[in-house]
Amino acid sequence: MEKIVLAYSGGLDTSVAIPWLIEKGYDVIAVVLDVGQSGKDMDMIQQKASQVGAVQSIVIDAQQEFAESYVAPVIKANAMYEGEYPLVSALSRPLIIEKLVKIAHENAATAIAHGSTGKGNDQVRFEAAIHALDATMKIEAPIRDFHWSREEEIDYALAHNVPVPIGKASPYSIDENLWGRANEAGILENPWNQAPADAYALTVAAEEAPDNPLFIDVTFKQGLPVALNDTKMELADLIHELNEVAGAHGIGRIDHIENRLVGIKSREIYEAPAAAVLMTAHKDLEDLTLERDVAHFKPIVEQQLANLIYNALWISPLFDALLSFIDETQKVVNGVVKMKLFKGQAIAVARKSDTNSLYDENLATYTSADSFDQEAAQGFIKMWTLPGTVYEQVNHVHSEANLSKLKD
User: Fold this and answer.
1) What is the pLDDT of residues 306-359, one digit of tens each?
2) Which residues are recorded as binding ATP (predicted)?
3) Class of 2-173 per CATH?
4) Is the pLDDT of residue 236 over 70?
5) Binding residue numbers for L-aspartate
6) Which residue in 38, 69, 173, 357 is the catalytic one?
7) Rg of the chain's alpha carbons, rounded to an integer?
8) Is 69 a catalytic residue?
């Protein structure tokens, strides 16, 4: 029998995929990556895959690699798809496929399978990475190719003795990693329905958050957070800590109507407490340390990078080139930002950089300590406006229009 490597999560889609692939004639190697899914028992998920019929069940601890190689670029780039989504699910897909292709080669497997539907973005993300890393690898997508509805999946699972942590009354589809949690389907599919309390798991409602704010100092080195309140931490551990702390203050809830890669709109519920804090703090420190032209140009690159990640083009020459620009800008993003966490909001209230601050209090002040050469301003204004002044003197475009208005 041919061997196939399945991107396994233990959820409904990938659980029913195992017997389906077995019926199709494959020996299934189930692989789950631990990228920081909160509350997940990896041993139980590993056993479940074997119980359902996988010939091998493999768990890979990839939290640190995920944080350092995939989340880190997003922090440095302030990358938010459509200005709201911190790219939670999109980030883990290229890493998952990288590991699956490696395992496929080690086990002489001829195919890779995933549990994505035909409506989602992940099918593109998985398969684009597979094509880039091994174009000869066959691809199976049971949920998409068999055209299962959620109800049909559940019926198939019950018929094949597949244990699934889901019921027909609440068919949420959830994906999670250390950068956040994505939730869709069920009652959330109607955008007029407010998300119920059980749609959230990482955050409390803002009105239920503590009545007193919490202040946290986030230290950055070359654009990446390295410490909380002067306690140095690995990036993955720091994100986990902030998810817990910020989530307890109701921070990081996102209710978003999103434009999917496949061309449809979807309603998504995201929770990203650590991302909300770190992205706000990082941008605030950049405002202190980046030169004006760099600060004004960088958002253009940020948006393009966010689109590339969302649209399954992590493995591309353009992504590599843009990321090199981002890395260059981050050499000066060093310092500390004091964040106020309160009732669903993460606010930067103070910041400093002992080595790279471009803020000069003696230039900014309106007191007697002012060192700004105000006499130079008059000449600067004359030179700054010279091109427009000469143009107007020659063409009289605006002056004639203004005189006409005055006569009327």
Assistant:
1) 999 999 999 999 999 999 999 999 999 999 999 999 999 999 999 999 999 998
2) 7-15, 115
3) alpha beta
4) yes
5) 117, 121-122
6) 173
7) 26
8) no
**Residue 169 phi/psi, 5° resolution?**
-75, -20
Where does the pLDDT of residue 161 fall: very low under 50, low under 70, confident under 90, or very high at 90 and above? Answer: confident
Is residue 111 classed as helix, strand or coil in its secondary structure?
Answer: strand
Clarify whether 27 is annotated catalytic: no
Q: DSSP for 240-254, please give it.
A: HHHHHHHHTTT--EE
pLDDT at residue number 279: 98
Contact present, 57 and 49 (Cβ < 8 Å): yes
Q: Tell me which H or E stretch contains 56.
A: strand 56-61
| Amino acid at the residue 388 | G
The span from the CA of 166 to the CA of 185, in Å, is: 12
Per CATH, the architecture of 177-352 is what? Alpha-Beta Complex (3.90)
What strands, in cross-sheet order, belong to the sheet with 335-342? 231-232, 224-228, 214-221, 335-342, 345-352
Q: Is the dihedral of CA 272, 277, 278, 283 positive or negative?
A: positive
Angle made by CA atoms 12, 18, 22, in degrees to the nearest 5: 155
For the segment 392-406, the average pLDDT, to the nearest whole number, is 69
Tokens standing for residue 383 = 């030179």
- Catalytic site residue 173? yes
- 345: three-class secondary structure by DSSP: strand
State the binding site for ATP: 7-15, 115
Hey, is 217 helix, strand or coil?
A: strand
Average model confidence (pLDDT) across the chain: 90
DSSP per-residue string spanning 128-175? HHHHHH-TT-EEE-HHHHTT--HHHHHHHHHHTT---S--TT---EEE
Binding positions are 7-15, 85, 115, 117, 121-122, 125, 173, 258, 270
Query: DSSP E strands: which ranges in 263-326?
Result: 265-271
Matching residue, tokens 């938010």: 80
Q: What does the pLDDT look like over 1-55, one tens digit per residue? A: 899 999 998 887 888 899 999 999 999 999 999 999 877 889 999 999 999 999 9
Domain boundaries, the chain: 2-173, 177-352, 362-407
Asked about 292 being catalytic, the answer comes back as no
User: Which of 92, 122, 253, 267 is flagged as catalytic?
Assistant: 122
Of the candidates 13, 175, 181, 267, the residue annotated as catalytic is: 13
Candidate list 57, 89, 92, 93, residue with the active-site label: 93
| pLDDT at residue 402 in the model | 64
* Residue 169 reports pLDDT greater than 90: no
